[in-house]
Amino acid sequence: MCFTLTANMRQDLNSCKTGEMRDLSKIYRLDETVYRQLVKHCYDSLPNEACGLLGGPDKWHGTHLFPITNVKPSPTSYRMDGKEVVAAFQKMEAENLQFNAAYHSHPTTPARPSPIDIKEAFFAGPFLILSLVHKKPVLKGFFISEGIVEEICVKVL
Question: Is the pTM above the cut of 0.85?
Answer without folding.
Answer: no
